[in-house]
C-alpha cells in the first residue's frame, strides 16, 4: 500500500477544488427546502461547478450516472437523485467530489429539511461531532486508528450504529487512494499519519444501534437494514506539521 504524499503546491491545488466544493455546499444550504427534488439539486450542482470550470468526479465513475449522491432518510450513501419531492422532516445527504484541473476534493453534508424529528436532529448532531473528533486526531505522528477510535467513541457513547463497510480514504488525483480510514478501530494502530497526506474523514452513522446496511438492486444505493435514519458528514483533510487543515471548508 503506497501512500502518495503531496507537496505544498499540490495541496493548494486540492484546496482550490475544496474551496469550490465548500462554496457549493454553502450555497446549497441556503437553497435546499421542502418541495425540491434531489434531481433538481443534482442538476443545480453540475451547473454550479461548470460555472467555476470544475466537474463532478462522480459522474461516470464506474458507470455512476449523476453529479451527486443524494441519500434521503434511511439511505446512508450513494443514493440516486430522483423526482421525489423532499418533505418537511426529511434529512438528505449530498455527497460531491469536485475535479478542478485534475485535482479532487470530496465532501458530504447532511441537511435537515424543515423541522425534523428529535431522532433525526440527534443523529446529525452526533455524526457531525464524530467528524470533528475524527479531524482533531488527523495530525502528523498519530495513526489512522486514532481517527477511527475517535469516531467510534462518539458513536458508542451515544448508542448509535456505525456503517462499517463505508470508510474514509486518501484522495488526490484519484477519488480513492490509500490509506483507508475506517470509522471504527483501535487507537495507535494503522498507518502512520505523515505531513503531506491528504485524506477524507467521513463518519456514516445510523440512529439504529447496529449500523447494518443493505445494497439495493441498482448496485449503488445503500440503506439501513432496520429502516433507521442515516447521517453522513465528510471533509477532505491535509496532514501538516501542525493542526489538520480542512481543505473543504470556507
The stretches of 5 or more residues where confidence is low (pLDDT under 50) are none
Overall geometric form: globular
| Percent in strands | 15-25%
Number of strands: 15
Our Rg estimate from Cα atoms comes to 17 Å
Per DSSP, the total helix count is 4
Protein name: Methionine aminopeptidase
Subunit structure: Monomer.
InterPro entries: Creatinase/aminopeptidase-like (IPR036005), Pept_M24 (IPR000994), Pept_M24_MAP (IPR001714), Pept_M24A_MAP1 (IPR002467)
Keywords: Aminopeptidase, Hydrolase, Metal-binding, Protease
Topology:
Elements: H1 8-31, H2 38-50, E1 55-56, E2 69-72, E3 75-77, E4 91-100, E5 103-112, H3 118-136, H4 144-158, E6 161-162, E7 168-170, E8 177-181, E9 198-201, E10 204-206, E11 213-215, E12 222-224, E13 230-232, E14 235-238, E15 245-246
Antiparallel strand pairs: 1-4, 2-4, 3-12, 4-5, 6-10, 7-8, 9-14, 10-13, 11-12, 14-15
Helix pairs in contact: 1-2, 3-4
Top keywords for this entry?
250 residues; alpha+beta; 4-stranded antiparallel beta sheet; 3-stranded antiparallel beta sheet; 28% helix
Written account of the structure:
Residues 13-241 form the Peptidase M24 domain. Its cofactor is Co(2+); Zn(2+); Mn(2+); Fe(2+). It comes from Paenibacillus woosongensis. With 250 residues, the chain is of the alpha+beta class. It has 4 helices and 15 strands. Strands 1, 2, 4 and 5 form a 4-stranded antiparallel sheet that branches. It has a 3-stranded antiparallel sheet with strand order 3-12-11, with no helix packed on it. Strands 6-10-13 form a 3-stranded antiparallel sheet, with helices on one face. A hairpin with a 6-residue loop joins strand 14 (235-238) and strand 15.
